[in-house]
Amino acid sequence: MALPQRKTDVGPPHYKQFLPPVIQKNYGKWKYHEVITPGSMVHVAESGDKLWTVRCASPRILSTDTIREIADVADKYCGGYVRFTTRNNVEFLVSEEKQLEPLMKELKSKKYTIGGIGPRITNVVHTQGWVHCHGACTDASGLVKSMMDELYDYFTTKELPNKVRLAVACCVNMCGAVHCSDIAVVAVHTKVPVINHDTFKNMCELPTVIGSCPTRAISPDPAKKSIKINEEKCMYCGNCFTVCPPIDIKNPERDGVAIVVGGKINSLRSNPKFSKLVIPYISNEPPRWPKVVAAIKHIVEVYAKNARKHERIGEWIERIGWEKFFKLTGIDFTFQCIDDFTFMRDTMRTASTFKW
Amino acid sequence: MAGKKYNTPLIDDLEKGPWPSFVTEMKKAAKNNEMANDALGHLEKCYSTKRGYWKHGGIVGVLGYGGGVIGRYSEIGDEFPGVAHFHTVRINQPSGFFYNSKALREICDIWDKYGSGLTNVHGSTGDLVLLGTKTEALEPIFAEYSSRGWDLGGSGSALRTPSCCVGPGRCEWSNYDTLDLTYALTQEFQDELHRPTFSYKFKIKSSGCACDCVAALARADLSIIGTWKGDIKIDQAEVKNYAKKMDINAEVVNMCPTQCMSYDGKELKINNAECNRCMHCITRMTKALRPSGERGATLCMGSKAPIVVGSLLSWVIVPFIKLEPPYTELKELIRKIWDWWDENGKPRERIGEVIEIKGMRSFLEAIGVPPQPQQIKEPRKDPFMFYTDADIEGFKAKEAEEKKTGKYKF
Ligand code: HEM
Ligand code: HEM
Ligand code: HEM
Ligand code: HEM
Ligand code: SF4
Ligand code: SF4
Ligand code: SF4
Ligand code: SF4
Questions:
Q1: Which candidate, B145, B105, B299, B261, places its Cα nearest to that of A5?
Q2: Which CATH number fits domain B9-147: 2.60.120.200, 3.30.70.2500, 3.30.950.10, 3.40.50.150?
Q3: Phi and psi of A40, rounded to 5°?
C-alpha cells in the first residue's frame, strides 16, 4: 500500500482537541481540588463544574495492547479522555460523577493499581536500563518493579509525613533524574574500562576518544596504535565507551548501585535541594535486588517514624542533622560520602556545633 | 506466529507481586511481534549475565531531520535477530500529556505495523517513546505519523521537546497558561528542534507554580516557574472550616519559611511584603488562600545532570516576566540566549556551564538583563572581581553628582 505524503515541522497536535468539554469550559478557572481517596481527586471550577480524576500506576513500558485497553476504559467512562503524568501515571478524566464508582470498580477488577495522590509514594521516575540503553550498569525497570512491590501500600493507602519521590538512573548520566529525589538509586560502574587494542584502530578515532574523557585520563599509546587510560584519573563515567565500542566498561561483578537521599524539587517551605550520597555501593542482584529494596524501605520507615508532618525527607534531615540521620538509620558513614569532586568547599562542616 | 519461545525464568519473577509489571507488558507485545519477543530473550540474557548488550547508537534518522530517532543496535544481533536494530522513535507529546482514545489507538495502530509494539509513555523528557524498530521502517513510520499530524521530538544537540505541567487544564494554582506556552514555543522553534545546530542539548520546561510538577528547575536549561506579584487573598470563612480539621498554627503558620503569617484562632493574617511565594500555605489550604494581582513567571536557567563537573539546579535570570500570547518578549529573549551560547560555548557544553565559565555578567549583558539581588542567594565573598574602565567611570560620575547635590547615593 502506498504511504501517505510525509510532512515536516508540523509540531505536536494541538492539545485543545484532547481536553474534555468540562476542561475546555473551565480552562484556567479552577477554584480548588480535594483528594477523595489515595487514587482519586475532584477539581471544582469557579462555575461549580467538577472534574474527577482517577490515577493509576503504569510500568512506563506499555504494550500497544495495554494502551488500547486504556483507551477502551476511557471511552466507557470518560468520553475517551485520558492523560498521563510526568511520573508515568495514567489519569482517567471523569466528567460525570455517576461514572466514578463504576470506573474505579472496573479498574480494580482489571487489577489496575490505583493511588499515588497525596502524602504518599507515587510512581518512580526512571531510565531505560538493560531494556534499551548501551551504558546501563543495571536494569531500571526491574529495580522499580522490585521496589514498588515492597512499597506498594505506600502508593495505594498508607500515608507518610509528606510525598516521597523515588527515582532510578541506570548510569551516572542520570537521564531519569535522580539528583533531586527524596530517595534515588544511581547505578555506577566502579572499574576502569578495558581496551581491546586489536579492534581499536579500525573502529575508533583517536582524537574523538581522547576528547570524550571528562577527566583527561586518556592519552595516545603510539606503539599499540591505541590509547591508554590513567587509572588515577578515571572515574568510570563511560563516555569513552560511548564513542568507541572496543573500550569495554561493563563489568558484571563490579557494576552496582548507590543510594542518594534528601532531594526535593519544589520550593515549598525550603528551596529545592540535591539528593546526597548515603550508601555508596550495593551489588547488582537481579532479578529482585533484595538489599537495595531493603535499604530504601528502611529509610522510608525511619523517616515515617521520625519526621514531622509535611517535612520532606531532606527537610527532616536538615532539621536533625546528617550525623543524626546516619545514627538513626544505622547506615555506615564512608569515605565516598565526603565530597572530593566539585562540592567539597560547600559541604564540609565549619563549626563545632554538631550532635553526638 | 512462529517466533522462538525463550525460557525466561529470571524476568518471569518480575511478573509476580502487585505492582504493574513491565515484563508482562513485554510479553503482551511479544505475542504478536518478533521484535518484542527477541527483546524478552535479550533482556533475560542481561539478567543472567548482569550486563547489557546494546551498542552505542549509530546515526539513523529521517530525511531532513537531524534528530528524533535514537539509533540502537545489539552486540548479539545474531542470537536475537529481532533486536539487531532496535531504534527508538520520539513522538512529540501533546502539551500536558492529554490524549483521547482515538489518538491513542492511531498511535498504536501505526506502531504495531512498523515496530515492536513496545512504548514508553512517556520518556523522561516528555516524548511518547516508541521503543524498537528497524532502520528501513523509519521513513514509513515518519510518513504515517506526520501525515496524521504527529511530529518527532528532539534529540542530539538541539532543542529538546518542551514539556509542561497540567497547568490551567486542571490546576487552580497555575499562574500562566503552561499548555499554550509549551505549544507556542514548540511551534516557534520547529527548526531548532529537528535540526541540531546547538553546542549541546537545550531543554525548556514550564511549571505553573513553585510546586514545579514537571521538575523544571532541576532538568531544564530554561525553567519557567509561574508566580505572582500581588497579595495572597484570604477567605476567612474557609479558614474557619480548615481550623476544624487541622492545626493551622502547627501545619501552616509555623512552617511558613518567612514567618510572615499569624493566626490567633480567629483570623489568619499574612504580611504579604515578607512572603516569598513558596506555595506551602496555599497547598495546605487551597480553598482559603489564593494569589492575586499580576501573574507571570520567573525564568531560571542552567540546570543539568552531573556529567561532567557536577549537577546544577537552575538559578534566577529574570525575576518576573509576563507570559501572554504571542509571547514575543520570551521568544526574543530565547533567541538572544542561544546567540550568546552559540558564540561562547564549546561542543558538549550546556548553557549553565558556559555561564559558569564566562560569568553571569557576560551573559546578562548579552541578553540585556540587569543584575538584581533576586538572582543570587548572597553576594560574592571574595574580593577578586573585574572592573571595566566604564564601571569606574560610572562610580566616579556618581560621586561627582553627589558632590553637586551634597547627598550620597550608594
Ligand atoms: C508539595 C509539593 C507539591 C504539591 C502540593 C503538589 C500538588 C500537586 C497537585 C495538586 C497535583 C494535581 C494537579 C492536577 O493535575 O490537577 C499535582 C500533580 C502532579 N505533581 Fe505535584 N505537587 C507537589 C510537588 C510535586 C513535585 C515535586 C513533583 C515532581 C517532581 C510533582 C509532580 C507532579 C506530577 C507529575 C503531577 C501530575 C500532573 C502533571 O503531570 O503535570 N509534584 N501535584
Ligand atoms: C552526557 C550525558 C548523557 C548521555 C551520554 C546520555 C545518553 C543517552 C542515551 C544513549 C539515551 C538513549 C537511551 C535509549 O537507548 O533509549 C538517552 C536517553 C535519554 N536521555 Fe540521556 N544522556 C545524557 C544526559 C541526559 C540528561 C541530562 C537528560 C535529562 C535531563 C537525559 C534525558 C534522556 C531522556 C529523557 C532519554 C530518553 C529515554 C528515557 O526516557 O528513559 N539524558 N540518553
Ligand atoms: C545534580 C544534578 C541534578 C539535579 C539537582 C536534578 C534535580 C532533579 C529533580 C529535583 C528532579 C525531580 C526528582 C523527582 O521528581 O524525583 C529531577 C527530575 C529529573 N531529572 Fe534531574 N537533576 C539532576 C541531574 C539530572 C540529570 C543528569 C539528568 C539526566 C541526564 C536529569 C534528568 C531528570 C529527569 C528526566 C527528571 C524527570 C523527573 C520527572 O519526570 O518527574 N537530572 N531532577
Ligand atoms: C584577599 C583576601 C583577604 C585579605 C587581603 C585578607 C586580609 C586580612 C587581614 C589584613 C586580616 C587582619 C590580620 C590582622 O588582624 O593582623 C585578616 C584577618 C582575618 N581574615 Fe582575612 N583576608 C582575606 C580573605 C579572608 C577570607 C576569605 C577569610 C575567611 C573566609 C578570612 C578570614 C580571616 C579571619 C578569620 C581573620 C581574623 C579576624 C579576626 O581576628 O577578627 N580572610 N584578613
Ligand atoms: S541513565 Fe545512562 S544508561 Fe540509563 S538511559 Fe541514560 S545514558 Fe542510558
Ligand atoms: S570511563 Fe570516563 S573517566 Fe574513565 S577513561 Fe572513559 S571517559 Fe575517561
Ligand atoms: S506546577 Fe503548580 S500549577 Fe503546575 S500542576 Fe503543579 S501545582 Fe499546578
Ligand atoms: S506562600 Fe510561603 S512564604 Fe508566603 S505566606 Fe505562604 S507559607 Fe509563607
A1: B145
A2: 3.30.70.2500
A3: -145, 145
pLDDT (tens digit per residue) in A27-55: 999 999 999 999 999 999 999 999 999 99
User: Which DSSP string corresponds to A2-64?
Assistant: PPPPP--S--SPPGGGGS-HHHHHHTT-EEEEEEEETTEEEEEETTS-EEEEEEEE--SEEEH
Q: How far is the CA of A269 from the centre of ligand 7 (A)?
A: 16
Single-letter amino acid, residue A267: S
Distances in Å between the alpha carbon of B324 and those of A223, B187, B207, B216, B335? 63, 16, 15, 20, 18
Map residue A92 onto helix, strand or coil. Answer: strand
Among candidate residues A238, A207, A332, the one with its CA nearest the CA of residue A278: A332
ipTM above 0.90, yes or no: yes
Number of helices (H) and strands (E) in chain A: give both, helices first: 12, 15
Binary contact (B212, A266; C-beta < 8 A)? yes
Ligand 6 centre from B140 Cα, in Å?
38
Write the CB contacts of B395 (distance below 8 Å, at least 6 apart in sequence). Answer: none
Single-letter amino acid code for the residue at A136:
A
Would the CB atoms of B210 and A145 count as touching at under 8 Å? no
- CATH number for the domain formed by residue range(s) B232-291: 3.30.70.20
Q: Per-residue pLDDT tens for A103-157? A: 999 999 999 999 999 999 999 999 999 999 888 999 999 999 999 999 999 999 9
Q: For the domain covering B163-228+296-375, report its CATH number.
A: 3.30.413.10
